[in-house]
Design goal:
The protein is mainly beta and about 290 residues long. Helices cover about 5% and strands about 50% of the residues.
Length: about 290
């Protein structure tokens, strides 16, 4: 993606000892895209640069709006940054990263019949922070191989993580509150994730007043489902939305606009049962969203 105008974003990448990491890729992409979406769309709405001999990197031209920035995964624990690029072509400096050692997670991704699933995406987030899988920092990301095996790079020892496991042809799995063993106690830990076919579900955002469905909803409105699985879908112009695959079970389904949670409901997904969910919207949406601070 070639841009001729925009803001410059720069920073530095260091290893666990504080030494610069040279010739290492740093990635940036639109905040409403997952890393899987970026991979599948062959770089759409994403950018990549390399660090120099001093570990410094710079994106010369990035568009205004919310972006994610992170070093390319290489088996070390490293943060993901969510930031807002200003519209005034002002430089954004000091976006630094320092990679650390941690505890690896070995995961095997299976279908409902126990067969290995290739090319499943596994993302690890801070436990309890997952209200929008495209808006919170993640600890690590990885993809399963032909045997369904995936190794996430070092995770923070002693912390709890939530895992989102996704696949293009299956419902997403959501594994909550997994405790990472203390560093040096267990060299690695493993578990299996089973992805099912999933159930199609539809609904509508129902405003008290028609004017509540404003431009912000069309530009940045998403509905998120959190339960045994996790999924996110965009709101259509008439307020309707649809999920292609959800694992049966109890869910919290809510509307987000930008980084704001606006309204939600509790639902139960049953295999083979139709849905007509209604998310009541009792207040107008902001026409202009304040940038992140």
């Amino acid at each position: 993606c070639v841009l001729r105008s925009g803001s410059r974003l720069s920073g530095r990448l260091l290893d666990a000892s504080g030494r610069p990491l040279a010739r290492h890729a740093v990635l940036a992409w639109r905040a409403d895209f997952s890393l899987r979406h970026v991979e599948e769309q062959a770089g759409a709405a994403s950018w990549e640069v390399l660090t120099d001999a001093e570990g410094r990197y710079a994106f010369p031209h990035l568009p205004p709006g919310r972006l994610k920035v992170m070093p390319a995964p290489d088996g070390k624990a490293g943060a993901l940054r969510m930031l807002t690029v200003p519209a005034e072509d002002r430089p954004v400096e000091g976006v630094d990263f320092r990679q650390t050692d941690g505890v690896p997670l070995d995961l095997k991704v299976l279908d409902a019949k126990g067969a290995a699933l290739e090319n499943a995406c596994v993302e690890a987030y801070p436990s309890g922070a997952l209200t929008d899988p495209y808006s919170v920092d993640l600890y690590a990301v990885g993809f399963s191989d032909a045997k369904g095996l995936c190794r996430l790079p070092g995770l923070p020892p002693g912390e709890k993580v939530d895992l989102v496991v996704s696949h293009p042809e299956r419902a997403w799995a959501f594994l909550r509150g997994l405790e990472v063993p203390a560093e040096g106690v267990v060299p690695g830990w493993s578990l299996d994730a089973v992805l099912q076919e999933g159930q199609a579900c539809v609904g509508r955002v129902a405003p008290v007043r028609a004017e509540h469905l404003g431009p912000a909803l069309l530009e940045e409105g998403f509905v998120l489902a959190l339960g045994p699985g996790v999924s996110k879908t965009r709101v259509r112009g008439d307020g309707s939305f649809a999920f292609e695959r959800l694992v049966p079970g109890d869910y919290e389904v809510f509307l987000t606009v930008g980084n704001r949670r606006m309204a939600g409901i509790a639902v139960t997904v049953r295999a083979g049962a139709s849905t007509a969910w209604r998310i009541p919207l009792a207040r107008p949406l902001p026409c202009v969203l304040a940038p992140e601070r």
